[in-house]
Structure formats: structure tokens, C-alpha cells
Write a structure and sequence with these properties.
By secondary structure, the chain is α/β, with parallel strands linked by helices. The chain folds into two domains: about 5-230 and about 300-310, Alpha-Beta Complex (Spore Coat Polysaccharide Biosynthesis Protein SpsA, Chain A), CATH 3.90.550; about 235-295. The chain has ten helices and eight strands.
Length: about 325
Amino acid sequence: MDISIIIPLFNEDESLPELSEWIIRVMTANNFSYEVIMIDDGSTDNSWSVLQNISSNNNNFKGIRFQRNYGKSAALNEGFKAAQGNVVITMDADMQDSPDEIPELYKMIINDGFDLVSGWKKVRYDNTLTKNIPSKIFNGAARWSSGIKLHDFNCGLKAYKLKTVKNIEVFGEMHRYIPVIAKWSGFKKIGEKVVEHRPRKFGVTKFGWERFINGFLDLATINFVSKFGKRPMHFFGLYGTLCFIAGFAVSTYLLISKMICREFALTNRPSFYIALVVMIIGMQLFLAGFIAELISRNSAVRNEYLIADKIGV
């Protein structure tokens, strides 16, 4: 199979018929063998019924329905598990991503050998204050911390080698940083393509200001995990040792001063208590490193979701 298209959706029943027809036209025109996996992330409208009708007319369309809303990362992760095509394309269901971009993305993976190609919505039709400015801040921070020179980390339109999606895991709200996860997993040939960003035709945006804060927290998490997830002692042990040595050095100096000068009031010096606290913090960090080495950072049920129904998967 040439292409697997993965589309997470939440309350997008108005856009699905037109989107599916557009995808079929593009696939037919390019003679691609394909599957379209739509993940209904607990929609409360008629999205699942619409998807059932689409699938009954074209068995290339498949569906996974979550019992409740888990988020885009969960939807993408389930889609990655089910994908079978040599090239995996992800796109949003709101029709702001154009299926006409798919053939060129496919060529960049197959002919140019990229592990991942991320879309860049160079011209955007979103609200400047609530989406464009936060997006620029996100992308600047992600570029600086990851070293990946992409303009738009969070673009929903991306292409992957099948091997890439089968060897990465997306959870929480980490879909924003899939290129970082891919690089961390050893897939370093990451490209970018300018893609069309279309004005929203149906529904309303799911973006809220809480995602602005969550995005930075996720970036901090993924940077820490990518550097120290397999060796937490290198972080906790290093700073724990430095704290302990600093506290021990100050304590030793104060004790020697007390021995030399009997009139030296050791317990009246704030530095003595600060040194003791720093030593205790150092020991606690060191022990935290040992514990972190013993406990797996991954929960066994982190990516298990209650699925209500499936179509063709």
C-alpha cells in the first residue's frame, strides 16, 4: 500500500463528506493505493455516523472511535498503530489542510529519502493574537531547544516513513513536538514543505489559551526526557553531588574556623544552616536519581484508550 492518511477529528461532521471526496479525487488522479484512518476523538455530534456512511461507500476509509475525548496525541498514536502504507500522512479534519499537498509530500519521502516532512503554513488565516503570535513563540522555542530548523512544528499536515511512525510514541499533548520525538528516536532526516493554509469553512477552532502554557510545559518535558530519560542519574546525580560538595565545603570551612578561633560562634552564622540545607538537598537529589534509575519512566497503561467501535481496522 502506498499511503495511509491519518485524520484525528472532534466534532467535524460538516467537513467530513467534502474532505473525503477531495481525498478520493487526489488518490485516484495519482493512482495511489491508500487507506484513510479517521480517529473520532469522542465527538458529540454526528461525526461517527457520517464516517460510517463514507466507509460503507468506500472501504478504503476506516475508523476508530474513542469512548471519550482523549486528545489529538492519543488519536495520532492509535492511527500510527493501525497504519500500513509505506508513507503515512497526517492531516486535520477541518479542511484547513489541503489534500492536494499529498503527492508532493509522498515524493519527498519516497524519492528524497526524508524520514519526516513537516508542513509550513507560511501564509496563515488564523487569528493573529490568539494563534499566530503564540505559534511563533512556540516554534522559536522549539527550534532553539531542539536544533531542528522547522518553521511550523505544530502543523497537522506531515508525512512520515512507515518505519518512523512505528518507532515513535505520542502521548499527553506531545503531538506538537513529533519532529523532536522523531529526532530523539534516531530519525534525523527531517524536511519541510510550504503548504497551503485554507480558511476554516466549518466548525470552530479547538485552540484555547490553556494550550499556550501547556505547550511550554510539554517542551520542557520532552527536552528533559530526551536528554535524561534513559539516564536520570546523570541529571539528579550531577546536581546532587554539586550541592553536597558546596554545602560540605562551606561546613568544613566553618568548622575549621571554629577550631582555630574558639570564640567563633558557629551556630550564630546563617551560612552554617544554609550549608546544612544545601547538603540535605544534594543527598535528596542523589537519592532521587537512584530511584529514577529503578523506576521506569513509562507507565504500562499510558497509551491504552477505551475504544467504543472500529471500522475496517
